Amino acid sequence: MKIVRTVEEVRAIRPSLGRLGFVPTMGALHDGHMSLVSLAADRCDAVAASIFVNPTQFAPHEDLALYPRPIEADLARLEAANVALAFLPSPQEIYPAGFDTRIEVGTIADRLEGAVRPGHFSGVATVVAKLFNIVTPDVAFFGQKDVQQTRVMRQLVRDLDIPVEIVIGPTVREPDGLALSSRNIYLSEAERGEASALARGLKAAEEAFAGGVRDATALRRLAEAPIRQTMGIIDYISVADPDTLEEVDLIGPNGAVLSLAVRFGPTRLLDNVILG
Amino acid sequence: MKIVRTVEEVRAIRPSLGRLGFVPTMGALHDGHMSLVSLAADRCDAVAASIFVNPTQFAPHEDLALYPRPIEADLARLEAANVALAFLPSPQEIYPAGFDTRIEVGTIADRLEGAVRPGHFSGVATVVAKLFNIVTPDVAFFGQKDVQQTRVMRQLVRDLDIPVEIVIGPTVREPDGLALSSRNIYLSEAERGEASALARGLKAAEEAFAGGVRDATALRRLAEAPIRQTMGIIDYISVADPDTLEEVDLIGPNGAVLSLAVRFGPTRLLDNVILG
Q: Residue B112 and which of A160, A170, A196, A211 are 20 to 30 A apart at CA?
């Protein structure tokens, strides 16, 4: 595995990599990330991964400084998974002096996470566009767990005609259902015990949907019930159009995304299921 | 010459074109455009040109509907210049239903033309990023006449790591000095007679700079004098840092860009010289 830190080095290596799959990450790699690396290896000649804790997608009060950075362990996991290229740029490499451009992906970025975290998806879209231009992959892989991010990525690539195929890998879960996230390590033992309520709520709603329930309010209530029995504070529970993420009242033939964000102390957990 | 109207057709042809030079235009081609095509032919294996009157860079009160579209003559000129690929997308091909992304290139886009035409450079940057992603040229060519646009392009490409080299071709002028522009045809005969005052003013300032004058106010006055003797209304005369386009009082070792915009009736004319 080549470990490189500059744009120039990536560009020098790129031509030797053939059809390239790319997994952009912020590090603190877990089995969710590694499932995307596996998907990429299955579909491409070679896999590149980036580890970059992108400052522009954090608000000033958020956890940029605290965000876990276990670089040695991350590199060992990537190496063991036969990743060909690990790109670990510095913030200065990505945002040199004079950097002054941003990409705004429109209304899909304003809802849900975008409403709670203004500017977040502009930071994500801009850094991913840069990484795509640096790595020039054929296919890029994102996790279903961050469902709005997957929609923002599709909008970005479609709107700017970026010649990269986007593939979404399924959410990987702990045995009790908790979706894997680099932020799960922030949870106290008590919070960790309660956090499986998110998956239980989603599962209840999913089963009701499978049984024929199409009313969004009813499904939201089913998802909400187990979370109400914890200390978690619900930021939102959304039943939304799968393309636009606009809230729906009644789920039609296109199905819906049921997504939620719940805070346990300072830790925000996200999860979702696709209905239909 | 292949004439194509869809993204898919461009992508199908692109691999056969080798090292590709690209001249994005809004059509109404003149010798300025064709000098860029020549530059591209000198430096690359093949040349692609686009003709697209981009609606998002026009404000509602501007001349989008009136903008000249002599498509047959344009195609004949491109063909005669050995252009390999002419891309003439429809507005729907570039902005399909649901399109919702824009690129903002920061403070360099807010000054001068950006201050007079809010949103203009966001429209330009977004469409050029799209065209670059569609055509994937190695080198792209822009005219010095639109000097702020050239700076916005450099900022865009640098900030988003777009793997395209930007080359700026010199301004091509009429015998009396008027910079070629597709909008010159809007000028009445009387206005056309007076319009050479822009180039005369710039030349006077350029000669003073060559003679040692470094004071921006003095140079601005020299540029202004001949224009004051016409019916033209000056939008701005700027002496600015060549990288940031920030106004300067005294020209330092980096030189400056002296640029101006003058209205003759509804027609805005731009011109500039690089000092140093």
A: A160
DSSP assigned state of B53: -
Q: Do A101 and B103 touch (CB under 8 A)?
A: yes
134-163 of B, contacting A, C-beta below 8 A? 134, 136, 155-156, 158-163
Whole-number average pLDDT of chain A: 97
Residue A42 DSSP SS3: helix
Q: Does A256 touch chain B (CB under 8 A)?
A: no
Residue B140 belongs to what H/E stretch? strand B139-143
In this prediction the pTM is 0.97
CA distance A213 to A130: 42
Specify the CATH architecture of the domain B2-169: 3-Layer(aba) Sandwich (3.40)
- In the residue annotation, A33 being an active-site residue is answered as yes
Chain A interface test: which of B14, B133, B162 (most A C-beta within 10 Å): B133
Query: What ipTM did this prediction achieve?
Result: 0.96
Output the CA–CA distances (angstroms, integers) from residue B74 to A34, B30, B81, B113, in the order listed: 53, 9, 11, 27
Q: Where are the domains of chain A?
A: 2-169, 182-271
- Is residue A133 within 8 angstroms of chain B, CB to CB? yes
Architecture of the A182-271 domain: 2-Layer Sandwich (3.30)
Amino acid identity of residue A167, one-letter, is V
pLDDT single digits (tens) B58-101: 999 999 999 999 999 999 999 999 999 999 999 999 999 999 99
Following DSSP, what letter does each residue of A157-200 receive, concatenated?
Answer: HHHTT---EEEEEPPPB-TTSPBP-GGGGGS-HHHHHHTTHHHH
